[in-house]
Write a structure and sequence with these properties.
The protein is an all-beta fold. The protein folds into 3 domains: 140 residues, Sandwich (Jelly Rolls); 92 residues, Immunoglobulin-like; 135 residues, Sandwich (Jelly Rolls), CATH 2.60.120. 0% of the residues lie in helices and 45% in strands. The chain has no helices and 32 strands. Strand 4 and strand 5 form a beta hairpin. The protein is rod-shaped, with a radius of gyration of 42 Å.
Length: 421
């Protein structure tokens, strides 16, 4: 650990008294494997080495970085002078520490710098001795050790970077979603990998829903799996609990609600997904399906299946078979892909055994589809989508009911239907 020096205090010179008669500057060339500061200079003094001594620190090229006068020296032994301000040095960069002896007397060990030296982070190369017959930069090299030293303090380790804020990427079911299947498994996707123990909790009317949380393989998604089917026609609240990234960032308090489906509600394609979720069409297009019900009831919502490239604002419509629009409503809070649902502000009453068309507008095309789906009729509960001329489309922004067909293609448009009791 530092403070560090090149030499131990027990080191003494082979020759204590050498007198060259003239003033000298003696030093050592050194480097450090880590950045830090030089807080002072040391040298070994013999009793005959009198006068005022000055410590200096230079770059390898001779630029003076600091100077200090030694005070309160003892008669002999190691002397230390501390700079007024520590001098920063770079890692793996050569510097020269030196002191001046005004009367030309000094101590040395011949050949003491003939080999490399390592002392903690401090290092010297062979020939690290330095001298000059003046009071300036000691630019001459030598294998002699003039017992000049530094006091080095390593730089403190850099503080770890602050963890990146953890943000929500997706919530499933979407906040505010209605008619959610009772077997739904709520999930939360966030912006960074999560620690073990990050979890979701679900409650209904303040009562916890039994279940377990699991984290995805990429550690960014938590999924809550209820132990049994969720209660019907019930608002479910999902809360993030102890959601912390591997970097230590905690997710701000996060919760959302969705409402499960009434078991009496019916949809034609509730459990069906398309063969393809991205068509090649890029023009605006109205897509729909013709259907009828054998019992009077209410359409409470319109649904469509969305692929990831099916972007823009989508509008759902309900029409009579003759093309009179009964309602038009915009989808909001859509997810990136999958089934989207919009609840009607006022449910629409359907007459039994009467044909209707439900449709949505894809402003940039790229719709979901399955060809030859309507080679046979689709019946779920009281709802039936006939096989004759079904799967409807019309290019444009939805100003008229879709009335064209192609290859009995299902474009995955649907209703949520509540039959009369």
């Amino acid at each position: 650990t530092c403070p560090c020096t090149l030499y131990q205090d027990t080191l003494t010179p082979a020759t204590r008294d050498i007198d060259d008669v003239t003033a000298l500057t003696l030093g050592v060339r050194f480097s450090s494997t880590t950045a830090g500061t030089i807080t002072g200079v040391r040298f070994y003094k013999a009793a005959s080495n009198t006068g005022t001594h000055t410590g200096k620190l230079y770059t390898a090229g001779g630029q003076e970085l600091a100077t200090i006068t030694f005070t309160n020296e003892t008669t002999a032994g190691w002397q230390t002078a501390t700079f007024n301000q520590p001098v920063p040095i770079n890692a793996n960069t050569e510097y020269t520490a030196a002191y001046t002896t005004p009367n030309g007397t000094y101590s040395a060990t011949t050949g003491g710098n003939s080999t490399a030296l390592t002392s903690g982070p401090l290092q010297t190369a062979p020939g690290a001795g330095a001298f000059t017959y003046s009071l300036g930069f000691p630019g001459n090299g030598s294998n002699a050790n003039y017992l000049v030293d530094v006091v080095f303090q390593a730089a403190p380790p850099a503080a770890p970077p602050a963890p990146q804020a953890l943000t929500v990427g997706a919530q499933t079911p979407a906040p505010g979603a209605v008619n959610v299947p009772r077997d739904a498994k709520p999930s939360l996707t966030v912006s960074a990998a999560l620690r073990a123990g990050s979890a979701l909790q679900a409650t209904t009317a303040g009562t916890s829903v039994a279940g377990t949380s699991a984290i995805s393989a990429d550690s960014k998604t938590i999924t809550f799996s209820p132990a049994s089917l969720l209660a019907a026609n019930t608002q479910v609240t999902v809360r993030a609990v102890n959601v912390i990234s591997t970097d230590g960032a905690a997710l701000p308090p996060t919760s959302w609600q969705f409402t499960t489906a009434n078991p009496a509600n019916q949809s034609m394609f509730a459990t069906v997904n398309p063969a393809s979720s991205i068509s090649s069409e890029t023009r605006a297009i109205e897509l729909g399906v013709s259907f009828r019900t054998t019992r009077t009831g209410l359409v409470t919502a319109i649904r469509f299946h969305k692929g990831a490239l099916n972007t823009g604002t989508h509008y759902g419509s309900l029409w009579t078979a003759a093309g009179a629009r009964l309602v038009r409503v915009a989808f909001t809070n859509e997810t990136l892909s999958g089934w989207q649902t919009v609840t009607l502000g006022t449910p629409i009453l359907l007459a039994a055994n009467t044909d209707y068309v439900v449709s949505y507008n894809a402003p940039r095309g790229r719709y979901s589809f399955t060809t030859n789906y309507f080679s046979q009729a689709r019946t779920v509960g009281y709802l039936t989508a006939a096989a004759t001329r079904n799967g409807l489309y019309r290019l444009g922004t939805g100003t008229a009911v879709p009335n064209l067909t192609s290859n009995a293609t299902n474009y995955f448009v649907d209703v949520v239907f509540s039959p009369a009791s």
